[in-house]
Specification:
This protein folds into two domains: 95 residues, ApbE-like superfamily (T-fold), CATH 1.10.3980; 140 residues, T-fold (Roll), CATH 3.10.520.10. The protein contains seven helices and 15 strands. Helix 1 packs antiparallel against helix 5, helix 5 packs antiparallel against helix 6 and helix 6 runs antiparallel to helix 7. The chain is an alpha+beta fold. Helices cover 30% and strands 26% of the residues. The strands form four sheets. An eight-stranded antiparallel β-sheet has the order 1-2-6-7-10-13-14-15. The chain has a three-stranded antiparallel β-sheet with strand order 3-5-4, with helices on one face. A two-stranded antiparallel sheet has the order 8-9.
Length: 286
């Protein structure tokens, strides 16, 4: 698709690429700004971020921005629906497993001495009227499974008038309209056992496609209840109207395992394709 105009930047721990069928420099620039905004507010690696400041405030209602409030409210809703398989309080466990290095600076995040194992999403209370968040105990919030999807969605809204575009944030995608051939966008699902290969190709328009795989960063997806890397799925792909929903659904399905993961996706109305470690295929069709 040589007719596409694309631009890439290193943001949110990955390479973000926005491609448009026609030149739309100003809209693309504004779209990239949303990635910077979400990263600045939601990074658990930056001690000055809004999320880090919130994690450091215990037993006290804390006013937060609309962006952080909505991301956290959504994450808590998914946590409730998944019975805790998805949990935005997994940050402490992530640090204990060595996922504590900033992708740009190389600086490491140290686990606060008062953070003990056992905290869950139920230790977080939100007040929708006051727009406040209260943490019942010391913990480390991690919005990694929704923040990138949120940034993609905000960028997509910025590009709405562009109509025909794609956003790729390290394999988390939103595809709008048609490609430069006038066809639905083709999306290859990475083969979890063969480098530089795809295991399946999807054709989508006006949808987000997010994949979680056991090949990512030495397996960075933890099972919150076991406090250990999830291991029952090789690859989980979710297809949804928004990237935040697809991002959370693929993460949750990966943790739940192929059978329960597919059932979860059906329950929340998300199409999904999962591959078990032996590459047995499971699918939720809408």
């Amino acid at each position: 698709m040589s007719g596409l105009r694309s631009r890439s930047e290193a943001l949110m721990g990955t390479i973000v690429t926005i491609a448009t069928v026609q030149e739309h420099h100003e809209a693309v620039t504004r779209a990239f700004e949303w990635f910077r905004e979400v990263e600045a507010r939601c990074s658990r690696f930056d001690p000055q971020s809004e999320l880090s400041q919130l994690s450091a405030t215990v037993n006290q209602p804390c006013e937060v921005s609309d962006l952080v409030f909505e991301a956290l409210r959504f994450a808590l809703h998914v946590a409730e629906m998944s019975g805790g398989a998805f949990d935005p309080v997994v940050g402490g466990a992530m640090i204990r497993h060595g996922f504590n290095r900033h992708y740009l600076t190389g600086e490491t995040t140290v686990l606060p001495a008062d953070v003990r194992p056992g905290s869950t999403f139920r230790d977080v209370e939100i007040d929708a009227d006051e727009r406040t968040v209260t943490l019942a105990r010391p913990l480390v919030l991690d919005l990694g499974a929704v923040a990138k999807g949120l940034a993609i969605d905000l960028a997509a809204k910025e590009l709405a008038d562009v109509r025909n575009f794609s956003i790729d944030a390290g394999g988390d995608l939103y595809l709008s309209g048609k490609n430069d051939d006038g066809q639905d966008w083709s999306v290859g699902i990475r083969h979890p056992r063969k480098d530089h290969s795809v295991i399946e190709v999807l054709h989508v328009s006006d949808k987000a496609v997010c994949t979680s795989g056991d090949y990512e960063r030495g397996q960075h997806l933890l099972n919150p209840s076991a406090q250990a890397p999830a291991s029952n799925v090789a690859s989980a792909t979710a297809i949804a109207p928004t990237a935040m929903l697809a991002d959370a659904a693929s993460t949750t399905a990966f943790v739940l395992g192929p059978v329960d993961g597919i059932e979860f996706c059906r329950r929340i109305g998300v199409a999904a394709i999962l591959f078990a470690p032996d590459l047995t295929r499971y699918e939720a069709v809408l």
